[in-house]
Amino acid sequence: MEWILAQDDFPHVINMSLGGPRRNTKHEKLLWQLYRKGAMIIVASGNDGDDYKFYPAAYDGVLAVGAVNKQKTKAVFSNYGAHIAVCAPGVACYSAYPAGGFRLLQGTSMAAPTVAGLVSLGISYALRCGMTGGEKLRDLVTTCLETSAEDLGELGRDPYYGFGCIDGHGFLKKLEGSLK
Question: Which of 12, 50, 76, 151 lies deepest, with the highest CB count within 10 Å?
C-alpha cells in the first residue's frame, strides 16, 4: 500500500474485504495516511457474528460495513459493534467466483463492495459537478451516505446496523441537494 501514498493521484475509494483479529500498526498507519489525504476506506466488518475487534474494520478512519439479509435484519454472521457505520445486502449475492462462473455468496465481503460502488458513483457525480477531491469531498459523501441510510434496529446509530441500510436513491438525492 505504500506505493499508493507516493502517488499524486491516489484512489478516492478503497474497498477492503479482508481482515482478522490482530491489529497491524503498519497497515493502520498507512490507512490513516490515506484517510488524511481524503480517501474513503470501506471495510467488511467480518463474518463471525460477534462484537470483538476485527481489523481493519475497527481502525479509525475507515467505514465499517455490516451485512443484512433480504428481510433487512442483521445477517446472522455479520460482526457488529460501535464501529459499524452502515450495512448493505450480504446474503445470496450473485458474484463472480475465482474458479470461474458465478455463485450466490454471502458475507460482509459482499456488502462492503456494494457500499464502495455506491460511494464511487457519488464521488464521480460530485467531481463532475465541480467539487475537488480530498477531505471535504470524503466528509460530504460520508455524511450523505449515513444520513440517507434506512434506519433499522434502535432509533439512530446502533451497533448492529450503524446508521442503517444504504439507500442508493436517497444517497444520490441528498448528495445532489448538498452540491447545489
Answer: 12
C-alpha cell at position 39? 480517501
Residue 66 C-alpha cell reads as 455490516
Q: 25-37 and 135-148 are packed helices; what angle lies between their axes, rounded to 10 degrees?
A: 100
What digits encode the pLDDT tens for the residues 154-173? 999 999 999 999 999 999 99
* Tally of domains in the chain: 1
- The β-bridge relationship of strands 62-68 and 84-89 is parallel
Strand partners, 41: 14, 62
Domain holding 112, by residue range, is: 2-178
For residue 162, what is the domain's CATH number? 3.40.50.200
How far apart are alpha carbons 67 and 175 in whole angstroms? 23
Residue found by looking up cell 446509530 in the block: 157
pTM beyond cutoff 0.85: yes
